[in-house]
């Protein structure tokens, strides 16, 4: 893993969930060239985007053997980088690292629990 990714991940890990949502909202806001939005509207837009992408995100990370193996590791940088790698094609216009850290903070095991109970990982 590149040193810059580790530094970025460390920076993002220091942010609160609402700060991460605001970052995602800001990225969406700038992608669509919308006028600058309030903090609350950025968070609301990020939540809507995450809701629309949830099934794609769940399929990508919960179906991965790499994620399932790394989720029990103490190395959060490796887990977050692996998630970001899987999300890079899903998170167009938004940093996959920001989304990955948000998922990590919310709990990857909990996010994938139902999928892992009902099916085996694919990759």
Question: What does this protein look like?
Answer:
The chain is mostly helical. The protein is 73% helix and 0% strand. The chain has seven helices and no strands. It has helices spanning 3-13, 17-31, 39-62, 65-70, 76-87, 96-106, 108-118. Helix 2 (17-31) runs antiparallel to helix 6 (96-106) and helix 5 (76-87) crosses helix 6 (96-106). The model has no long low-confidence stretch (mean pLDDT 87).
Could you give a short description of this structure?
73% of the residues lie in helices and 0% in strands.
Total domain modules: 1
Query: Largest sheet, if any?
Result: none
SS summary, helix count: 7
Mean pLDDT, rounded to whole units? Answer: 87
Question: What is the number of E strands?
Answer: 0
- Structural class by sheet pairing and helices: mainly alpha
> Radius of gyration in whole Å, from Cα?
14 Å
The general outline is globular
How much helix, percentage-wise, in residues?
over 70%
Which residues form runs of ≥5 with pLDDT under 50? none
- Strand residues, percent: under 5%
Order of helices and strands: HHHHHHH
Oligomer: single chain
**Beginning-to-end CA distance, first to last residue:** 20 Å
């Amino acid at each position: 893993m590149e040193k810059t990714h580790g530094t970025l991940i460390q920076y993002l890990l220091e942010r609160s969930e609402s700060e991460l949502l605001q970052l995602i909202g800001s990225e969406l806001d700038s992608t669509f060239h919308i006028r600058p939005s309030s903090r609350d509207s950025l968070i609301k837009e990020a939540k809507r985007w995450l809701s629309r992408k949830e099934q794609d995100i769940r399929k990508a990370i919960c179906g991965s053997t790499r994620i399932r193996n790394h989720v029990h590791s103490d190395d959060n940088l490796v887990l977050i980088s692996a998630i970001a790698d899987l999300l890079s094609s899903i998170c167009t216009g938004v940093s996959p690292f920001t989304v990955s850290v948000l998922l990590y903070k919310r709990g990857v095991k909990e996010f994938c629990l139902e999928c892992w109970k009902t099916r085996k990982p694919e990759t």
